[in-house]
Amino acid sequence: xxxxxxxxxxxxxxxxxxxxxxxxxxxxxxxxxxxxxxxxxxxxxxxxxxxxxxxxxxxxxxxxxxxxxxxxxxxxxxxxxxxxxxxxxxxxxxxxxxxxxxxxxxxxxxxxxxxxxxxxxxxxxxxxxxxxxxxxxxxxxxxxxxxxxxxxxxxxxxxxxxxxxxxxxxx
Length: 171
Known about the structure:
This protein has helices at residues 15-27, 67-80, 123-132, 144-149, 153-157; strands at residues 2-10, 32-37, 39-43, 54-63, 96-102, 107-109, 112-114, 137-138, 142-143, 160-164. With 171 residues, it is an alpha+beta fold. It has a single domain, classed as 2-Layer Sandwich (Alpha-Beta Plaits). The radius of gyration is 15 Å and the shape is globular.
């Protein structure tokens, strides 16, 4: 089994319910289970500022899937939960599942880059990720806690704890 860390985000619809539905769907991927989940954080939008705030979280999964198979599973879940890709880049979306890390692997393929290429720039990813595993090493960049400490403190000031995910894995 391989450890995979993902970022979850939503700013359309019933975002908290969508994040919980996504976790249930992730737990149903073949040879995969959710091992840890962060709290939910309310965060300002990144990239395209004129939109609603996001709810963001992070999860650690254990999977027997290969990186691109795992990515395909994430994309299918996004689509099943209402994600469309016809809007602007970094625009509003019902669900965003980003593959952040896949064990200590470095993947650089046309449809997949791991570690996520902007992971180290995003407090809304690093804050929930640090809640799960602050000492996690991001290949070539350092630990999650060090990356978070290197960000402008004002980036973290706008990130407020919203509440824990109401997630219980299916037996």
